[in-house]
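worker-3 :: picked Glycosyltransferase
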Amino acid sequence: MAQQLFSSSHLCHSSVSNRLNISLLSRNVLLLLLVSLRLLLGVFLPWTGSPLFIFPNRSSSSYSSLPSNWRDYSLPQAAKFVAKDGTVIVCTVSYPFLPFLNNWLISVSRQKHQDKVIVIAEDYATLYLINQKWPGHAVLIPPALDSQTAYKFGSQGFFKFTSRRPHLLQLLELGYNVMYNDVDMVWLQDPFQYLEGSHDAYFTDDMTRIKPLNHSHDLPPPDRNGVTYICSCMIFLRPKNGAKLLMKKWIEELQAGSKAYEGNDQPAFNWALNKTYHQVDLFLLSQAAFPTGGLYFNNETWAEETKGKHVIIHNNYIIGYDHKMKRFHDFGLWLVDDHAFESPLGKLE
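worker-3 :: tokens ->
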């Protein structure tokens, strides 16, 4: 009997021990499967056309405020969603220029400022594609343009959407700091560290004449024709009265001279600067840090002498979509082919 009890007790202990071993084994297998799945996703996800960590700084609750129909999404909603430290970065793009947008976004992401970006989509195809891949970062301000028209830089169609830059005024009225960039730019360094002081508006000179490294930060004097050549493609504005006045004057100039400025909103911006400079605290950014494309790409000696100082490169002083892309390729600034997954949009088909 004692032997039976011992045998029974041994069998019971054995059964419990086996169950514990199975349980531990199952737990270890499950843990191994989870680790393997994570590793598999790390390898596989890039091939799916999406970045691995799409929204690392967003909680699920932050997406609950987004609309079910992106046509109802407004600029104030977008600004509230993306703003960091009271700052937003704005660009404008139509469907044909999505590769340039992605190239620019890669460079912005490398400086860890991509979460601040609002893309003003010029057509519904762009609006839906961006918000599908990167919810909340694209907004359309009607009227929408034809998404199939490949607007050339400098064309009348291009003017129609770049001349909407004064929508920046609405963001200033909402209390945000605003950086505007054209998407034919590449960031090599963090531009925010170069925004010295607390001026109303920061801008870059579009002239190719070489300035000394310690040049004045005042608005350059006009030429013999009374014209300045400030670029309207890279602007930083603080929500102060001076910046708002400048934007209002820009809008007035565009409306008053729409025929004269057709194809280019930059003359209107320069007239606005010259008419308000005594009321606005302006700051001209360093030429070495923010060179015009006519200097950076066309003056090899200067580019070499100032190497390491460049912050944002603007691919201007050249006409045509294909020519711009080729020049970026030639200078090692076309990032999309090899680094698409550094963009929050991932790889675009």
